[in-house]
Write a sequence for this structure.
């Protein structure tokens, strides 16, 4: 067990997952002396009937829902956050529940900052003034798909992100009534993002044991349930296991420095309006091929997590790291029909790759050189092997 | 006596010049009190307009025809049609 | 941004499960009282409890309750459904109505419910465990084997509870529980 | 890795580990906007000079409010009140607990009083009665084993009422747990062995008890791997910093694992032996672990079999056929006890009768076994044990543990076959 | 003066890198299939450019096409076309302009010019009947469009120039010719990226004579009669110009107010065409030759200025809540001098004001107050400070600073001055227009909001109407003739003239298929056939003309899908899909999803908006 010379680890979120998990929310809220949460969710979810199930979970409880703010669509804007904060103050709520994924949770976190710090200017925290104290209790209930960023300590509002340990949700509720996905693309997108985050965390160079533990269990569930989840998105138990994987991958990711795949995918998504998941699916194989090409060691733990004890023990020691890479590629191959393989199929213009690589390496704080980013992008563009 | 309602008509594109209205303020327009249930055509004739077909009439964002009924507090803009672009 | 298109929502009540759980609590309460007279193990458990022992099992936040305790002359009695006015020494709360339904429809055994944090116990832990053992025994008496086998970690072997004693006890408990 | 039908996991402690971890304390205090911490520790820790190391590491940047070092072996109600008084008088704003289980539990008690006011601990006793964030609180464990920097509970005795008050709430978790090998460098070999086995028990029990969940499983897997690789090495050459750090990490991860998936009968028995005969917690754990595995073997054989992988490494795991793996695990644990026994020159007990107190008398007489069995069946951890444990089962296990002979399988009463997680 | 019968199909291909030019022939088949103008330009680039290249790189090409009606004396035929790959949207962009450059090039004997490559130093081109001369533009590089224009006009009859904005590669720089502009999509930036300051054409060397004079004269006479009879072209446009629409938009609630949050405003009449005509005693100042005379000039506090068009008044006036016409004229002058498209500038400034209001960026811009706007326009032109980010367009700026939910653009092109929530059919047209949020793709708002010939909020027949109008207007743009003639051609034929407007509305509402096919637009194809001397079959000729329009539109869509445009781009800003207008109690939004699927099926696209092979084959577009 390699222990780095120095590492820090924090997971502020409490995870409760399983049958009747949502019914525990009133009790958890009592633990915070909060009885009137504001619910932030998306228009699509409230129309899909999942919100009715969510409200049903509060039967026979002392909790009154201060208001269901369901105007969030697929973009977290400051306008939405201000409206929700106004509703929060108006109703005198004392905690926030975000039902849904990416944008809903971002708006909820933004509202949390606005109401806890009693301010209207959100962006001064993005430009330097640090968050000082604990915010209001924030509960996240993911539904059908996941953007991989719900449980992290990062909030992205208006394309700007802020990371602080006070931004972790206090409670993550994974309930089998909410997790089944509606479409296979939804599952494909979420599993690829979780896979990229988990593999990134597993192969990060500071490999602290805590990060490895979270990444291990996330990869375990992905290995076991990903292929089945793609075939049957509505299957209850598989979707619950996959949602556990998304949560654990996100927690591992928020403690490890952001991997190259994540940075490149976010920049590409910004430049081309195509979702980051699709780029992660393309870039992940090439990043690993690039690491093998530069003789960087891919740790055996990756294969152990994906294959399980028996298969790991059975394969001889020297080709376990290669087997790990093959296992990742096999899992991604399951996305045959749903996601394009190269950036050329996505018609990403080639001339934009230059400044994307520059922006990504700048955001990585020079951990990844611009040349490396550029080579990975070029290979991924044409689909050329190393 | 039929109950009276007040209606406001705004003239644009030089129509107020043709009707020779003095000190006409385009933002407030001309307010008329007419018996309720009367149609736009009657109100325009009352205001002195003669040829109706060559103008476009709008009420709260929707185009209306000359024989649509008027209600209390309606605001009708009357102007020459144009194509846009 | 007009706030009345986001109305405040009070989730209301689930009457069926509330009534079902109330009845089950009543039955279990009465069964404990009956068992404490019939079964020697239950008697032994209750013997060690202090004189002012008063247990209340209730569903948070204001669900049905079951109060069982020792009356003046030390006999275990089902004290009804209202905990007000009684000095409770041990409270066993079930966190939500749904959790109670899981337990009382035997989808989850009492011990798995504990493991899944459906219960919170306030007061002396030793008494709490004794009550759990009593509940297991009462369940063995009240319900047929196929159900209880799921609900209990280890169904009492012939050696511990002979079939004769079990059936006799079962009949007496049913009679005592349902006759006032 | 199975997905349980329901589980909860919460471990809100910021773990800082490394050779220079102590030097981070000033920065951490500053980020929590506090300036005057109070140190709570016990005589043993001060004697070993650890407080000196901590103060030197913190340097001039932080002004220590006061150092309170008279914490008894078992945390006590009056001690908590006294410390709280000093805390308020000196105007401290945060707490640093340096030491083992008792110092940490006392510090938790003090934190309750100073943050929520009042001086009657009773009205905060029980589960989830603390409803808001307490003052900033840092724990520096000096034994890499108890893992109590990860637990959300504190047990404080009240001798005049002769009761043990249990406080359980997620707000009792410290803000920061600091793992620095310099803290455990001076831990004598037999204590290292003792606390190491305590951590191993936490990890193993977290793996097969009813509160099993994916996060605890992977933490337990890594903890077992760390302990099996480093414990013997750390006992043999205490000065090796790398092994010390690895042990500290393994202990913390084991603590994180068992504080969420809770432990079973081994801890039940351990608490009772500790309560009745004042035996250090670690010793009992080392002794009862093999028996706990044997007792629950029929209920979760394949899960216990999986422990062989981190315990003995992939090669051994691959060579032993699936059916024999649980047996190998129990054998290895006994062998570990044996190795530690030889490495510490006999001071590490292998079975109950070998436990001797300072002046060599037998601490656990055979006659005490019934009393131990009685308190065991009243211990809260039995609920999480896969197999039922009645009074006579406890007696059966205790006799064998006393003698040191392995349990014979036929005697154990077998409950329903498969555990439904 | 030699004579050209019909068209001589001569084309100039200029390679700036090698400083060479080549005279080539327009392929006969392309002329028939794509008519000329926009259609021909697209086909020329389709054959020469492969997808995925950098719009500001050397291998991007600009095609200037003149169309066959130019110089023949047909009404409003003084306009030319430019086509290139837009740096603002990353897709193809086609723009038209009425400046003298078109007539000059046509009368120098060229039907089309293609510019390729990149000059090493700033140059300008001199074109005459013999060919091209490359001249150094050091003297005029950095000058504003008026000064540069004046310098070039010494050498020829018509010229196009770019301003400082084009030189600094502002993504929405435009090209000036006379005081008319080739505005949208940043074609000026493409010229700037080629170091090409301008092109001047000698002109007046050829005389264009229609092949079949008799038929052409008959059609021409009928065309002039229609234009002078139609109330719109002869009435409101001739007297008040395009600004006659201000009051109409305000009345029908589709005037952009405060970054498209409100639909109308009490003070909107202050900036209407009528008020300006009165205050500034306007005179005509139009493209040559023009029969409608919609452009105007006026004296504003002493100096002669061109009166801004409706789009500029809408986007830089009411959208910024500024109701002082003199102020808007001043900004219009500023944008013309620097060579910036007023629609995109107005849209980006409105975004900046709302972003400042919400704290995303730090500027002193505020709705309703003119302070800081002129300085910001200068900063954008010279890319200084925040101007550098705003020069990238509101899409790129909102990606960097956030506020994507109120950046009002489609595919990167800022939206014109019509709020689609008041005319949902036009909302669909904004989404599916090839070059982005362009109002000229299918002028549906006039049917829905102005003329009341279709109900503004119904969605049933709208996909079919959008498709029909897109085809017709693409064909018209390929003649090329001014789009305003459409009011005369559509509304004057006897069938439409006599049926009362409400009846048309009902017909359009329920039997739109029949109603639109009864439209008699034969006037345009008659002119086209007359000029080229081809025989015109009365009804079938018109159908062939509309099919050519469909071919042009689908070709442009196909070229765009090769650049990555698909269903995810055919959308509207979130403001129109979620919020209602302030002036509309019922808070209507645009039900886009309801219409988009049907539109794709009508167009023969697949579910992701890519033209199917079958459609391309039917329109005989060669697949590369």
């Amino acid at each position: 067990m390699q222990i780095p010379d120095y590492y820090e680890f924090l997971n502020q979120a409490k995870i409760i997952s399983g049958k009747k998990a949502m019914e525990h929310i009133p009790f958890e809220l009592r633990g915070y002396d909060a009885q009137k949460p504001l619910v932030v969710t998306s228009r699509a979810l409230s129309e899909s009937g999942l919100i009715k199930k969510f409200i049903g979970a509060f039967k026979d409880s002392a909790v009154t829902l201060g208001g269901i703010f369901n105007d969030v669509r697929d973009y977290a804007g400051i306008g939405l956050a201000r409206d929700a904060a106004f509703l929060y103050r108006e109703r005198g709520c004392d905690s926030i529940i975000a039902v849904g994924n990416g944008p809903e949770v971002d708006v909820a976190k933004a509202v949390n900052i606005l109401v806890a710090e009693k301010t209207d200017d959100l962006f001064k925290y993005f430009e330097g003034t640090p968050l000082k104290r604990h915010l209001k209790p924030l509960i996240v209930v993911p539904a059908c798909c996941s953007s991989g960023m719900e449980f992290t300590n990062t909030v992205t509002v208006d394309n700007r992100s802020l990371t602080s340990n006070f931004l972790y949700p206090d409670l993550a509720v994974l309930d089998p009534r909410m997790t089944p996905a509606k479409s296979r693309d939804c599952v494909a997108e979420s599993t690829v993002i979780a896979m990229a985050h988990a593999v990134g965390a597993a192969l990060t160079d500071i490999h602290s044991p805590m990060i490895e533990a979270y990444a291990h269990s996330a990869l375990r569930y992905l290995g076991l349930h990903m292929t089945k989840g793609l075939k049957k998105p509505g299957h209850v138990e598989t979707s619950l296991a996959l949602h556990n994987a998304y949560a654990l991958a996100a927690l591992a990711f928020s403690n490890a420095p952001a991997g190259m795949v994540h940075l490149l995918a976010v920049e590409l998504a910004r430049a081309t309006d195509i979702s980051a998941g699709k780029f992660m699916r393309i870039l992940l194989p090439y990043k690993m091929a690039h690491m093998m090409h530069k003789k960087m060691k891919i740790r055996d733990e990756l294969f152990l997590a994906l294959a399980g004890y028996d298969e790991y023990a059975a394969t001889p020691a020297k080709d376990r790291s290669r087997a790990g890479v093959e296992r990742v590629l096999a899992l991604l191959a399951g996305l045959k029909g749903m996601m394009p393989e190269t950036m050329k199929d996505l018609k990403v213009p080639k001339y934009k790759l230059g400044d994307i690589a520059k922006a990504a390496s700048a955001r990585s704080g020079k951990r990844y050189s611009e040349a490396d980013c550029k080579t990975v992008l070029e290979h991924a563009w044409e689909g050329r092997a190393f | 006596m039929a109950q009276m309602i007040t209606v406001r008509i705004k003239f644009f594109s030089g129509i107020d010049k043709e009707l020779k209205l003095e000190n006409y303020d385009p933002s407030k327009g001309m307010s008329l009190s007419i018996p309720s249930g009367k149609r736009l055509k009657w109100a325009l004739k009352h205001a002195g307009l003669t040829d109706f077909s060559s103008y476009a009439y709008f009420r709260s964002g929707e185009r209306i025809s000359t024989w649509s009924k008027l209600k209390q507090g309606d605001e009708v803009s009357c102007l020459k049609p144009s194509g846009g672009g | 941004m007009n706030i009345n298109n986001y109305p405040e929502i009070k989730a209301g009540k689930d009457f069926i499960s509330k009534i079902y759980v109330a009845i089950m609590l009543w039955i279990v309460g009465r069964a404990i009282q009956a068992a404490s007279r019939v079964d020697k193990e239950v008697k032994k458990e209750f013997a060690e409890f202090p004189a002012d022992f008063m247990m209340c099992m209730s569903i948070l936040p204001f669900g049905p309750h079951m109060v069982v305790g020792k009356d003046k002359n030390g006999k275990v009695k089902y004290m009804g459904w209202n905990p007000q006015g009684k000095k409770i020494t041990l409270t066993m709360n079930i966190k939500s109505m749904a959790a109670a339904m899981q337990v009382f429809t035997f989808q989850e055994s009492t011990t798995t419910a504990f493991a899944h944090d459906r219960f919170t116990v306030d007061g002396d832990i030793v008494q709490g465990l004794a009550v759990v053992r009593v509940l297991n025994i009462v369940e063995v008496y009240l319900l047929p084997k196929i159900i209880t086998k799921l609900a209990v970690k280890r169904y009492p072997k012939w050696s511990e509870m002979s079939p004769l004693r079990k059936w006799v006890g079962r009949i007496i408990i049913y009679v005592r529980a349902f006759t006032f | 890795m199975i997905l349980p039908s329901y589980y909860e996991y919460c471990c809100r402690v910021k773990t800082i580990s490394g050779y220079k971890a102590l030097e981070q304390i000033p920065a951490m205090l500053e980020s929590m906007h506090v300036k005057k911490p109070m140190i709570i520790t016990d005589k043993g820790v001060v004697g070993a000079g650890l407080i000196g190391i901590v103060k030197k590491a913190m340097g001039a940047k932080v002004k220590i409010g006061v150092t309170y070092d008279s914490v008894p072996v078992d945390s006590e109600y009056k001690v908590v009140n006294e410390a709280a008084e000093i805390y308020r008088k000196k105007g401290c704003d945060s707490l640093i607990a340096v030491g083992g289980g008792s110092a940490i539990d006392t510090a938790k008690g003090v934190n309750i009083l100073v943050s929520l006011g009042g001086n009657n601990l009773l009205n905060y006793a029980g589960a989830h009665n603390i409803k808001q964030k307490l003052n900033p609180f840092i724990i520096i464990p000096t034994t890499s084993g108890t893992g109590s920097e990860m637990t959300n509970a504190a047990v404080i005795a009240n001798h005049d009422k002769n009761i043990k008050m249990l406080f359980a709430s997620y707000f009792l978790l410290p803000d920061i747990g600091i793992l620095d090998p310099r803290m455990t460098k001076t831990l004598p070999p037999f204590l290292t062995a003792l606390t190491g086995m305590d951590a191993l028990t936490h990890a193993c029990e977290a793996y097969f008890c009813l509160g099993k969940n994916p996060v605890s499983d992977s933490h337990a897997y890594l903890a077992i791997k760390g302990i099996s690789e480093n414990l013997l090495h750390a006992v043999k050459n205490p000065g090796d910093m790398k092994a010390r750090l690895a042990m500290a990490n393994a202990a913390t991860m084991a603590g994180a694992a068992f504080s969420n998936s809770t432990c079973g009968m081994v801890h039940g028995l351990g608490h009772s032996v500790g309560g009745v005969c004042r035996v250090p917690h670690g010793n009992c754990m080392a002794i009862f672990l093999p028996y706990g595995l044997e007792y629950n073997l029929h209920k979760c054989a394949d899960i216990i079999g999986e422990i062989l992988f981190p315990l003995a490494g992939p090669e051994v795991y691959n060579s032993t056929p699936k059916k024999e793996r649980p047996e190998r695990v129990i054998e290895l644990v006994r062998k570990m006890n044996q190795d530690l026994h030889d490495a510490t020159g006999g001071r590490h007990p292998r079975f109950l009768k070998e436990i001797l107190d300072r002046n060599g008398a037998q601490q656990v007489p055979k006659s005490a076994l019934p009393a131990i069995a009685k308190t065991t069946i009243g211990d809260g951890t039995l609920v999480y044990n896969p197999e039922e444990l009645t009074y006579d089962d406890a007696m059966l296990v205790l006799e064998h543990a006393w003698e040191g002979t392995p349990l014979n399988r036929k005697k154990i009463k077998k409950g329903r076959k498969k555990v439904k997680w | 003066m030699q004579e050209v019968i019909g068209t001589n199909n001569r084309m100039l291909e200029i390679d700036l890198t090698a400083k060479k030019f080549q005279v080539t022939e327009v392929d006969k088949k392309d002329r028939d299939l794509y008519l000329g103008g926009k259609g021909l330009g697209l086909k020329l680039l389709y054959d020469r450019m492969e997808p995925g290249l950098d719009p500001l790189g050397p291998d991007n090409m600009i095609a200037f096409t003149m169309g066959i009606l130019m110089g023949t004396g047909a009404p409003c035929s003084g306009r030319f076309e430019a086509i290139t790959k837009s740096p603002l949207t990353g897709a193809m962009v086609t723009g038209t302009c009425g400046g003298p450059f078109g007539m000059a090039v046509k009368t120098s004997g060229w039907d089309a010019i293609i510019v390729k490559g990149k000059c090493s130093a700033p140059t300008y081109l001199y074109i005459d009947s013999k060919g091209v001369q490359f001249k150094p533009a050091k003297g005029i590089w950095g000058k504003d469009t008026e000064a540069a224009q004046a310098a070039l006009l010494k050498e020829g009859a018509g010229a196009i120039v770019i301003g400082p904005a084009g030189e600094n590669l502002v993504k929405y720089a435009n090209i000036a010719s006379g005081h008319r502009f080739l505005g949208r999509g940043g074609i000026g930036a493409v010229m700037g990226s080629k170091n090409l300051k301008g092109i001047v054409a000698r002109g007046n060397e050829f005389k264009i004579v229609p092949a079949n004079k008799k038929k052409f004269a008959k059609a021409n006479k009928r065309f002039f009669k229609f234009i002078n009879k139609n109330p719109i072209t002869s009435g409101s446009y001739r007297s008040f110009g395009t600004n006659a629409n201000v009051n109409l938009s305000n009345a029908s609630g589709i005037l952009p107010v405060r970054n498209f949050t409100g639909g109308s405003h009490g003070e909107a009449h202050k900036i209407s065409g009528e008020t300006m005509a009165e205050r500034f005693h306007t005179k005509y100042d139009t493209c040559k030759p023009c029969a409608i005379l919609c452009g105007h000039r006026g004296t504003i506090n002493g100096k002669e200025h061109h009166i801004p068009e409706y789009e500029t008044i809408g986007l830089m006036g009411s959208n910024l809540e500024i109701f002082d016409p003199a102020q808007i004229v001043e900004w219009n002058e500023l944008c013309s001098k620097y060579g910036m498209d007023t629609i995109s500038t107005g849209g980006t400034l409105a975004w900046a004001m709302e972003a400042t209001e919400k704290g995303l960026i730090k500027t002193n811009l505020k709705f309703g107050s003119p302070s800081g706007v002129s300085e910001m326009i200068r900063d954008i032109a010279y890319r200084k400070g925040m101007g550098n980010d705003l020069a990238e367009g509101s899409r790129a700026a909102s990606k960097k600073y956030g506020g994507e939910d109120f950046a009002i653009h489609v595919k990167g092109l800022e939206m014109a001055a019509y709020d689609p929530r008041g005319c949902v059919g036009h909302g669909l047209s904004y989404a599916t227009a090839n070059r982005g949020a362009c109002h000229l793709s299918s002028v549906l708002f006039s049917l829905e909001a102005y003329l009341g010939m279709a109900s503004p909020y119904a969605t049933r027949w709208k996909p079919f109407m959008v498709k029909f109008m897109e085809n017709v207007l693409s064909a018209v743009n390929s003649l090329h003739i001014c789009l305003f003639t459409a009011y005369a051609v559509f509304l004057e034929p006897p069938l439409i003239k006599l049926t009362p407007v409400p009846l048309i509305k009902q017909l359009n509402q329920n039997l739109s298929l029949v109603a639109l096919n009864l439209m008699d637009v034969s006037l345009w194809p008659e002119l086209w056939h007359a000029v080229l001397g081809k025989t015109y079959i009365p009804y079938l000729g018109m159908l062939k003309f509309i099919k050519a329009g469909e071919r042009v539109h689908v070709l442009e869509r196909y070229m765009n899908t090769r650049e990555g445009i698909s269903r995810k781009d055919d959308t509207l800003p979130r403001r129109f899909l979620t919020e209602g207008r302030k002036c509309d109690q019922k808070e209507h939004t645009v039900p886009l999803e309801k219409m988009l699927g049907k539109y794709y099926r009508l167009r023969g696209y697949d579910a992701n908006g890519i033209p199917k092979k079958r459609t391309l084959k039917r329109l005989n577009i060669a697949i590369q």
Notes: Chain A touches chain E at residues 43, 71, 73, 75, 77-80, 82, 121-123, 157-160, 270-274, 346-351 (CB under 8 Å).
